Amino acid sequence: VETKQTHRHMAASGLPLLPGLAPNPQLGKTRFHKSQGLVFENSVPTVLQESPGRRGASATAKGSVYPVADGPAQPAWLAFDRKVLCFHAFFQESIAERRDEKERVRNVKIYFYLEDDTIQVVEPSTDNSGLPQGTLIRRHRIPKPAPSDDQFYTVHDVNVGNEIVLYGRTFVLHSCDEFTRGFLTKLGVRVGDPFSPPVDAYSSTRKALAESMQPFKPFEKSDTLGQFLENDRKVLRFYC
């Protein structure tokens, strides 16, 4: 608006458009008020896109990350705070140094944080597994494999039955919890039916071996003195 007024003053005065010859439209003014561009929407500070200026002049503010007209009423970090999607998944790991197994099935939990689209992969610990279990992938935004490595995984990429590749490992999502199923259903996503992961042969062998062992309980003691006193002077005799 000020630029158009400046051009009009220069055209009326006949001055050329050169540096130093442009008149200042602020000369003679004593009050320089500007309209308010900050408001609160649902207790969240928001920047207005456009607001009427003083005396009919329009004052355009900078664009907000979450505009009032297009974006949600609350920002994502506040609307989806502490809301996490939990998927049960597995991946197959090849074993090349053993004769009794060729591959191993490892079950994990994949957590998708809705507030910032970060992913965390955790493997539940197993007794005497000999594997580095726990947090396999720390929480952060994970890019997609090439050629889409310039994009990150979003909530539309995770669903029961889908396969996602995280740093060269292919994870198969076979089930999810009730909150995850209800949240995806509200988004209009058709959640797949859960299915059982493949059975790990090595884990089944180790489990059967552990169940076949029957060690003494901690409170059971072998009382040799009581056996000696109970069977005192008792002798078995055989004829042959």
Quick recap of the structure?
The protein is α+β, with helices and mostly antiparallel strands. The protein is 18% helix and 25% strand.
What does this structure look like?
The structure is a single chain. By secondary structure, this protein is an alpha+beta fold. 18% of the residues lie in helices and 25% in strands. It is built from five helices and ten strands. It has helices spanning 2-13, 76-79, 178-186, 201-212, 224-230, and strands at 38-41, 44-47, 50-52, 58-60, 84-94, 103-113, 118-123, 134-140, 163-166, 169-176. The strands form three sheets. It has a six-stranded antiparallel β-sheet, with helices on one face. It has a two-stranded antiparallel sheet with strand order 1-2. A two-stranded antiparallel ribbon has the order 3-4. Strand 5 and strand 6 form a beta hairpin. The radius of gyration is 36 Å and the shape is elongated.
